[in-house]
Amino acid sequence: MDVLNVEGGRRLAGRVSIEGAKNAALPTCVASLLTDETVVLHRVPQLRDVSMILFTLGSLRKRVVRNGKSVSISEDGPLAPEASAYSVKKMRASFLVLGPLVARLGHAVVPLPGGCSIGARPIDFHLNGLRALGARVEETAAAVLVDADRLRGARIELPFPSVGATEHLMMTGTLAAGTTEIVNAAIDPEVLDLVALLRRMGAEIEVDGRTLRVAESRMRGAEHTIIPDRMEAGTMLLAGVATRGEVTAVDVCPEHLESYLEALRAMGAAVDCEARDVTVAAPDGVRGIDVATGPHPAFPTDLHPQLAAALACADGTSQIVETVFEGRTTYVDGLRAMGAQIATDGRTATITGVEQLHGAEVEAPDIRAGAALVIGAVAARGTSRLAGLEHLERGYDRLADKLQSLGACVERREA
Ligand code: EPU
Q: Quick one: which of 124, 139, 164, 304 has the most CB atoms within 10 Å?
């Protein structure tokens, strides 16, 4: 098992290229199940999670051809109705194959999903949505079995704007008779990227605030380029802030980062958006702020841990209230080992800025907490060793190389 060895304390400076968004790539790959024609995706990030979803599609007998950052997904023969337990347990997004498979085949079996341990992460919205579309759903201890002679459009009100449930039910709705209305839907950029691909595939989808209306459509092949990864951009920019540096995230969509950039401005960082480049500078350090995460367009939960790492050495006290995942504060122990002062009370993390973090031996517990510990390590004085790289690799491509190109001293070593 390799570890990241980080000699912290250097200001990061420079330009860093940003990959396609993991959380847009995963559902757009799944959308290929809605047609027997070929779907071609570009700017697909080279990540473990993407390999896993492509493995899942392969296990369902899709033909996947990968060429660098482009992926072509086609169909040679009949689809299999049963997804591999290995991939669904490893990664939650594989669960999204359930509805499309039922819509195409009339029945499907998908194991109960795994994924990052950042909360209970139930699947009730997904299953109740499929039931509303007329599917019969049976849950066993290990899997979900679903069948339907014909799915029929319905009005589905989500109790919370869940990203995954919105994507799942929207995809399924394209093959259900009549119209499917999803109320209180997630409208994250990744969800709207899926809307863009589905429209290219022939779907009629109306986005009206948090209501999505999906008409039954004949779905065909299409070609689509995935949006830039706002979480990777946000992580790299916060690494710059934590080291009092100046980093430019190249070729991103600044409009996807609005609430995040607003928080950085409130911290006193200088933010400059020029076309598709975003530069953030914090030469004199930053001050504490109060932030609440929430469904888009609020501050994203997937940048909460990284923000906490930058606030750990800000001037003054900050509060982050987490409203999406009750288990988001998995970064706290690792940052505390680096000298951060963080108190948690329910869903609130109170962070009292310290003058300087110090190096420590830590382990990434999940993707975003791992990213927070990397930010802490590059900002800290002294040497840190970070284990658990398999989590980071689920969400970040060549993270060490990219940080190094910005001047950080980060090296991957054998443990
Ligand atoms: N929820 C339920 N029941 C459900 C579905 C969700 O109660 O059936 C709850 C969840 O427990 C949570 C809230 O609704 O409290 C929101 O969860 P959501 O369904 O939106 O999360 P997700 O679709 O499982 C995606 C991202 C996550 C990201 C969240 C929130 C992908 C592949 N994953 O997860 O990304 O944190 O939305 O924005 O898109 C990551 O990239 O590190 C990551 C964890």
A: 304
